[in-house]
Amino acid sequence: MGAHPESLLARLKTIPDPRRRQGRMYPLPALLGMLLLGVLHGRDSLRGAWVWAEQQWPSLWRTLGARSPHFPCYQTVRGLVARLDADAVDRSVRPWVEQVLEHPVGV
């Protein structure tokens, strides 16, 4: 089942993945989705969001579109986040955030 076209998960699918195809054990939208959920649950650091997601992974992985119940290690997530194009993430996520908040988000 695919994500609704106006959902945050659908927006995350539009972000270019900086990894080589053979290095994509975990789909980018699943990894970003788990981190965003951690932030929405009050975690204020990458490690904090990752720890939250690790605790929730058994109930999240299928919904987020991950292909495996095995949780990604912190280094995998940290390395991926460091390589992301921040502008591409902003272009993909900002419209969704502004729609949810019903007002523009400042830079």
Structure description:
- The protein is an all-alpha fold.
- It has helices spanning 8-12, 28-40, 46-64, 74-83, 86-101.
- It has one domain (26-101).
- It is built from five helices and no strands.
- α2 (28-40) crosses α3 (46-64).
Number of DSSP strand runs = 0
- Residue windows where pLDDT falls under 50 for at least 5 positions: none
The helical percent reads 55-70%
Q: State which percent range the strand residues make up.
A: under 5%
Write down the overall geometry.
globular
Please tell me how large the radius of gyration is. 14 Å
Distance between the termini: 34 Å
Question: Secondary-structure element order, as H and E?
Answer: HHHHH
Instruction: Report the mean per-residue pLDDT as an integer.
Output: 92
Q: Give the biggest beta sheet.
A: none
What structural class is derived from the secondary structure elements? mainly alpha
Give the count of helical stretches. 5
Number of domain units: 1
